[in-house]
Design a protein that fits this description.
- The strands form 3 sheets. The chain has a 7-stranded parallel beta sheet with strand order 3-2-1-4-5-6-10, with helices on both faces. It has a 3-stranded mixed beta sheet with strand order 7-9-11. The protein has a two-stranded parallel ribbon with strand order 8-12.
- Helix 1 crosses helix 8.
- The chain contains 9 helices and 12 strands.
- Helix 6 links the parallel strand 5 and strand 6.
- The relative contact order is 0.13.
């Protein structure tokens, strides 16, 4: 399904994008892989990791999903979009709600509009478990984004574009997640590990598993699905105890 296809990944310089490129090159022979993101330094780092002479199908495109005109230009002649661009920090969202709305909701609609206009074959949007029964602004923006992508299948008409959503839990040890945060505190010999709520449960998936799951969903999708993998969970208190059995845990 992805052989000889041009694939664009929004927010492609993140952990997922770096791993998904390796997955694509391992399982298929894509015509072109376009990394669309707004961070030129991360694109530079990625181009060093994937040098042009070795990874000839890789292209880099500076842009922001908030800017529809730029996105429309970037998605011309593209077959598949993997929409990974998002603002994700829960606390940051509470202090900067409009910024999250512009990226996670308006940006999502921009992806939809450009995909329909340029007749993209398939679009998969990456979501989060926090979009299920959301209580945070971040979760609410991703919940809204998911609704937009699923509903977009109703307005394509005779257009071939199809939209689906992949929703999974925390990617273990990804940037900004709880495991590297706890490890940082342990290395700094902090007095305790802070826990927001002792009843909290985290669902974890490895980065490799997440990319493989997206690849599977890409092949299975017909349009309108929200794909959810069955993944293991652990209580936050148990996670903290596993990482630092002798350190205090404090509810904050």
């Amino acid at each position: 399904m992805i052989n000889k296809k041009t694939i664009l990944i929004t927010g492609g310089t993140g952990s997922f994008g770096n791993e998904f490129i390796l997955y694509l090159l391992k399982v298929a022979k894509p015509k072109k892989i376009i990394i669309f993101s707004r961070d030129e330094f991360k694109q530079f780092q990625m181009s060093e990791k994937f040098p042009k002479n070795k990874f000839k199908t890789l292209r880099f495109f500076i842009g922001d999903v908030r800017e529809k005109e730029r996105l429309e230009y970037a998605t011309k002649n593209v077959d598949i979009i993997i929409h990974a661009a998002a603002l994700k920090q829960i606390n940051t969202a509470e202090y900067n709600p409009w910024e999250f709305i512009k990226t996670n909701i308006i940006g999502a609609q921009n992806v939809i509009d450009c995909a329909i206009k340029n007749q993209i074959e398939k679009v998969i949007a990456l979501s989060t478990d926090k979009a299920a029964d959301p209580i945070s602004l971040y979760g609410a923006t991703k919940f809204t984004s998911d609704k937009l992508f699923i509903a977009a299948n109703n307005i394509t008409g005779e257009n071939k574009t199809r939209f689906s959503v992949v929703r999974y839990g925390n990617v273990a040890s990804s940037r900004g997640s709880v495991i590297p945060y706890f490890k940082k505190l342990i290395n700094e010999n902090a007095d305790f590990l802070p826990i927001t709520d002792s009843r909290m449960t985290r669902f974890f998936i490895s980065l490799k598993e997440s990319t493989e799951f997206v690849g599977t969903c890409l092949n299975l999708m017909k349009g309108g699905e929200i794909f959810v993998p069955k993944i293991p969970s652990i209580k936050i208190t148990e996670l903290a105890s596993c990482l630092a059995p002798n350190k205090k845990k404090k509810i904050i």
